[in-house]
TrEMBL record:
CDD domains: fer2, O2ase_reductase_like. Residues 2-91 form the 2Fe-2S ferredoxin-type domain. It comes from the Bacteria. It comes from Pseudogulbenkiania ferrooxidans 2002. Keywords: 2Fe-2S, Iron, Iron-sulfur, Metal-binding. One of its GO terms (molecular function) is 2 iron, 2 sulfur cluster binding. Residues 97-194 form the FAD-binding FR-type domain. Its cofactor is FAD; [2Fe-2S] cluster. InterPro entries: 2Fe-2S_ferredoxin-like_sf, 2Fe-2S_ferredoxin-type, 2Fe2S_fd_BS, Beta-grasp_dom_sf, Cbr1-like_FAD-bd_dom, FAD-bd_FR_type, Flavoprot_Pyr_Nucl_cyt_Rdtase, FNR_nucleotide-bd. Pfam families: FAD_binding_6, Fer2, NAD_binding_1. This is Oxidoreductase FAD/NAD(P)-binding domain protein.
Length: 329
C-alpha cells in the first residue's frame, strides 16, 4: 500500500494500486479532473517526490518538456511507491451534482444543424459558468451538454449538434418537443470560469463548443464589464456559423470584448457582422498574441482542435495552469 501526500491537503491518502486520480476521488479530495481519460489536462499535477508509472498521453495535453519537468496526468498514472504531488489547478469543492426532472421550455433550430434548447429544472440548480450537465430524454441514453447560460438563470441553455441518424437528434427534432420531460443531472466538470484570475481571457469555441465559452465570458463580463476578453468563434465554413448576431451584439455591449470568426475551410466571401479570419484558429492566435503569458485560455470543441490550440498556446508562453480545455466530439 503506497501513501500519497497532496500539497495543501492535510491527510495522507492510501493508494492500493489504482491511479492517482482514483485515489483522490475515493478519499473525497476535490482534485480537479474532467474526462478521466487523458484528453483534457484538467487533472495535471507535478510530482514533488517519488515516482509514477505513466500511461501514454497526447503531446498537446502533456508535452515531453512537461513530462521531463515532473508533470503528470493524475488520471493516467499510478504511484510506484510513496508519492508527494501537487495539483496544478486549485482544489475547489464544486457545486454538488443532483439528478432531477426538468422540462423543455423552448427549442430553436439554427443553421449548421444546431438546436438551441432551453430547459427548466424542477428546482433551481447551482453551477459554475462553463460546467456541463447530462440530459436524458425518454428512453434514450444520457448525453453530456455544456451549459451556455449564466449561473443564476432559471433556465439552462444547451446547444445540441444534430447528427444524422442519431437517436437524440431525432428526438430533439420532434415538432412537439416543447413541454417534454427531460432528466437533468449536474453540474459536472472542471472547465469552469476561474474568478480569481484578473488577467486577459482568451476563449475559443469550436462548433457547439461555443456554448460553455459563452457561459464563461458572459459571467466574466457581467462581473467586470471592462475585462479584456478575446473570443475566437471557430468553424469550418459559413454555414456552420450559428450564433453570429448574438456575438456581434455582445461585442457592441462590452468595450474590451473582441470577437473573431475563424473559418478554417471557407473561401473569403461577403462578411457578416463579425470580422472573418480565413485560416485555422491556431494561426490567428499566433498572429494576435505574441505572448500568452499571464492570460487564461479556455478552449471547448473538437478534440483535435483543442489539442492543436493547446500546443500553440504552450509555444506562445501560456502557463500550464492557465489552460482549461473541454474537448468533445
Ligand atoms: Fe485527466 Fe482529463 S481528467 S486528462
Amino acid at each position: 500500500m503506497a501513501r500519497i501526500e497532496l500539497k495543501d491537503w492535510p491527510i495522507p491518502l492510501e493508494n492500493g494500486g489504482e491511479t492517482v486520480l482514483e485515489t483522490m476521488i475515493a478519499h473525497g479530495v476535490p482534485f480537479p479532473y474532467s474526462c478521466a481519460s487523458g484528453d483534457c489536462g484538467a487533472c495535471k499535477g507535478r510530482v514533488l517526490c517519488g515516482e509514477v508509472a505513466h500511461d501514454s498521453a497526447t503531446a498537446g495535453i502533456l508535452s515531453a518538456t512537461e513530462r521531463a519537468d515532473g508533470y503528470v496526468l493524475a488520471c493516467r498514472c499510478t504511484p510506484k511507491g510513496d508519492l508527494r504531488i501537487e495539483a496544478l489547478d486549485e482544489l475547489v469543492a464544486l457545486p454538488a451534482a443532483r439528478r432531477q426532472r426538468g422540462w423543455v421550455v423552448s427549442r430553436q433550430h439554427r443553421q449548421g444543424d444546431v438546436v438551441v434548447l432551453r430547459v427548466k429544472p424542477a428546482k433551481p440548480v447551482h453551477y459554475l459558468a462553463g460546467q456541463f450537465f447530462y440530459l436524458k430524454f425518454d428512453n434514450l441514453p444520457q448525453r453530456a451538454y455544456s451549459v451556455a447560460s449564466l449561473p443564476g438563470a432559471d433556465e439552462l441553455e444547451f446547444h445540441v449538434r444534430l447528427v444524422e441518424g442519431g437517436k437524440t437528434s431525432s428526438y430533439v427534432s420532434r415538432d412537439n418537443l416543447v413541454g417534454s420531460e427531460v432528466t437533468v443531472d449536474g453540474p459536472h466538470g472542471h472547465g469552469y470560469w476561474r474568478q480569481n484570475h484578473g488577467g486577459p481571457i482568451v476563449a475559443i469555441g469550436g462548433g457547439t463548443g461555443l456554448a460553455p465559452v459563452l457561459s464563461i465570458i458572459g459571467a466574466a463580463l457581467a462581473a467586470n464589464a471592462h475585462r479584456h476578453v478575446h473570443l475566437y468563434y471557430a468553424a469550418r465554413v459559413e454555414a456552420d456559423v450559428y450564433w453570429e448576431a448574438e456575438l456581434a451584439a455582445l461585442a457592441r455591449q462590452y468595450p474590451n470584448l473582441r470577437v473573431d470568426c475563424a473559418l478554417s475551410r471557407a473561401e473569403p466571401s461577403e462578411q457578416g457582422p463579425l470580422p472573418r479570419r480565413y485560416q485555422r484558429v491556431t494561426a490567428s492566435l499566433a498572429q494576435d498574441w505574441p505572448s500568452l503569458a499571464g492570460a487564461k485560455l479556455y478552449i471547448a470543441g473538437p478534440p483535435k482542435m483543442v489539442e492543436a490550440v493547446a500546443v500553440t498556446a504552450r509555444e506562445l508562453g501560456l502557463a500550464a495552469r492557465d489552460l482549461h480545455t473541454d474537448p468533445f466530439s
